[in-house]
UniProtKB/TrEMBL annotation:
It comes from Candidatus Yonathbacteria bacterium RIFCSPHIGHO2_02_FULL_44_14. Pfam families: NYN (PF01936). InterPro entries: LabA (IPR047140), NYN (IPR021139). Gene3D superfamilies: 5'-nuclease. GO terms for molecular function: RNA nuclease activity. This is NYN domain-containing protein. It comes from the Bacteria. PANTHER family: SLR0755 PROTEIN. Residues 10-137 form the NYN domain.
Amino acid sequence: MKSLKKNVAYIDGANLHNGIKSLSWKFDYARFRVWLHEKYGVEQAYLFLGMMPKYKELCRSLQEQGYTLIFKEVIYNNDGKAKGNCDADIVVLAMQDAYENKFDGTVLVSSDGDYAPLVKFLISKQKVTAVVSPYETKKCSILLKRTEVKISYIADQRTILESRKEKAPNADGIA
């Protein structure tokens, strides 16, 4: 059933990626986008990512699946590891959208306690629908839990969000 409210998702791409990497199953981003729409009435899903040209095909695919990508410039630490911290960008866009009354409710996809003040603000404005944690219960920040927002866990949605693409058989016909 289609929601009458306009809900928006703000997705911390790095947090989502790292959370699902810890799962023992293959995550399906297309199914996740549909699930956000069906479960929470999400019409617009902002996915915040570090801008890395080597992932341009992945980005194209995510856009085709219905995500609106917001890129953050990537910097590299001394070990050469990429860092594209988007926390402040998510907070600024969510606050701006809230003040401009661009949505009825929000879904935040992250387990990061840095978002607790944003969640508290959205609760005070009655504009928060849920937090979706990419990690298991024990790895979701206590700061988010203390806000008493409804939290769903991706790990609990395996039957819905697991990729169903089958492995191609090899030359012997064995998958």
